[in-house]
Amino acid sequence: MDACAQVAGASRHQDGHPVSGATKATLYPRYCFHLSPTANAWCLLRVAEIHALDQHPGFEGENFFFYKNLPIKWVRVVGVVVAIEQYVNRRLYTIDDGSGRNILALVMPPAPAKPKNGSTAGEQPTETDPQDADPYADVDVGVVVDVKGGVSAFRSERQISVEKMVVVKGTAQEVVLWEKRTKFRREVLDAPWLLQEKDIRQCRRDAERPEVLEAQREKKARKQSRAREANRDDEKPLAKDTKDKTARGGDNDSNDNDAAKRMRRIQRMIREGALTGRYSALGL
Question: Residue 257 belongs to what H/E stretch?
Fold first, then answer.
C-alpha cells in the first residue's frame, strides 16, 4: 500500500468485542510496520482478542492481522488444553483461556529422530532421545500451556502455528503470565501508535533504496554488455584481415620455396654435368 489508509480501529474489551466510541486510526504502509511495537513481538493476547483481530486487503498473504492500526503476526496465549486431535500430517491442540472462545494450536510433524550418541551409515542407532521424536509428549488434556506461534486463518477461523509450547508449572507462574498480559495491553494495545511524517518519508526512502540500487546495477550490467558486444564487433574485421594476411603470406612463402627448390635443382644438374653437350653448338 503506497498511501496511508484510514480505517476504523475500535477500542475493545478484554473479551475482544468492540465498544462504542470507535476512533479513527491511521493504517500505515507496509514499509512502516517494523516501527510498530507489535510487529516483531510475541503479542500476549486472550483468545477472544485473536479472533477479533481485523484483516485488511493486501496483507493476507503475509498473515498480518490488526488491532486498531497495530500489525500483529506473532501471538502468545496461556490456557488449558481441552482437546487433542492427531492426524497423519499434523496435531491440533484446542486451547481454552476462559475468554469465551477457543483456538486451535497447530503442530506439524517433528523431524526424524537423530541418534543421541551418533552412529555411522548402516548401523542401528543405539539410543534416541524421546523428546526429539515428540517435543510435546508432556502436553496432555487438562494441563495449562504457554503457546507461542504465528497467527493465521483457516476457513475463516483463526489458529496458531506453534513455534514453542511449554507446560505452565503451577498457578503462580500462570498469574505472572496474566500480569504480563495486562501490562502488554496497557502499554502497547491501549496506547495509540502514531508516526511522524518524517518517519514515514524515511521508511519510504529506505524501502525504495534497494529498488534504486537494483535499477542502477541493471543499467550498469546492460552498459557493460553493450560494450562487450561492440568490442566483439570491432575484433571480427581485424581477425578476418589478419587471417587474410596470414593466408597471403602463406602463399608467398610457398612461391619462395618453389623457386629455391628449382634453383637448387639447376645447380645440382650443373655440378653433375647434366647439361654437358646440350650447349656445345654454341661453343659452351
Answer: helix 197-271
Joined together, the cell numbers standing for residue 251 give 602463399
Q: How far apart are CA 154 and CA 103, in angstroms?
A: 11
68: left (phi over 0), alpha (psi -120 to 50) or beta: left
Q: What is the pLDDT of residues 234-266, one digit of tens each?
A: 655 555 555 555 555 555 566 667 777 777 776
Instruction: Name the residue with cell 529422530.
Output: 113
Secondary structure (3-state) at 215: helix
Q: Cα(218)–Cα(215) distance, rounded to whole angstroms? A: 5
Give the chain's residues under pLDDT 70.
1-24, 110-132, 210-216, 232-256, 266-284
**pLDDT tens digits along 102-149:** 999 999 876 555 555 554 444 454 454 544 578 898 999 999 999 999
Question: Using an 8 Å Cβ cutoff, are 53 and 151 in contact?
Answer: yes
Instruction: Quote the CA–CA distance of 80 and 270 in Å, as a whole number.
Output: 123
Residue 115 and residue 126 in contact, taking contact as beta carbons nearer than 8 Å: yes
Residue 148: partners with Cβ closer than 8 Å, 6 or more residues away: 42, 74, 75, 76, 162, 163, 164, 165
